[in-house]
Amino acid sequence: MNGSSSERTYGAVARTLHWLVVVLLAAQFYVGWTMPHIRKTTPQEGLVEVHMSLGALLLFVVVARLVWRIMRPTPLITTMKPWERMVARGTHDLLYLLLLLIPFLGWAAAGYFGYSPHLFGMTVLPAIANGDAEWAHTSGDVHGFLTWVLLGAAGLHVAGALYHYFILHDRIMQRMLPGV
Q1: Strand, helix or coil for residue 152
Q2: Which CATH architecture best describes the domain 12-176?
């Protein structure tokens, strides 16, 4: 199957990037939930390092997904009501905004705590804040809060897909499922 999209289904590239984001987010939520609370004295090791690496990878995949989506716009569904399109567009826009903003805020907070974020020990990311930047400390708190907003937006996204599948009985959800 090629990477293109049609009204019937998304292309293989779009679906792969979508599900990769889902898997990375699930891993990030798990690691973020189980890792120690970050303080200036918390070492950059273990789950903290994994969390930062996953965040860097997630940011990279989300940017790739956004570029792909811009190059190959979302297939329009002519059967959706205007309010459904508005809610879907708003939810997708919010998801993209949060998926870009949350890692950036975490990256800034990493600089405040004196960490050098790596992509799984290979590529060192440049610092975007230093240990004296109070805004970067605050960005860590905002990072944590927006994570809950992201969880709610993702829940709304899933609820919308299930609404289309179980209530409307259309094929909106199947367009993003692998192998369909």
Answers
A1: helix
A2: Up-down Bundle (1.20)
